[in-house]
């Protein structure tokens, strides 16, 4: 009787492992398809899905090359924002999450790169870029504090959100 129970349990465990491996293959194939859609077509939905999937793993900065493609090749505001997020992740060894104030600790090169993409995203009316820049200017994180620019960005945000209502 113990041998039969052992065989059944072993069989069930092996069956579950095969199903998990199948799920992993499907996820890899899905990721490959999302990446292809981004590179070849600049598909915003695929980019959002990829960002969400990558954002849940330990290598969140992997979104950076795809964000650069979206921002540069397809002029995507969210691509610009994800460049900033990728830089936050790369410069965040303690994994504090989306903490904009960490920009003040970036190297000068990374800070200028991040600000350039946030500025580009803000011009493309991406509210995430607008809000991040507003906080950076309002608090003087890595840049000279500038309430005038922060107020202008806050008004831009209000204008965009009012239009969406």
Automatic annotation (TrEMBL):
Source organism: Chryseobacterium defluvii
InterPro entries per record: TPR-like_helical_dom_sf
Protein name from the UniProt record: Sel1 repeat-containing protein
Domain of life: Bacteria
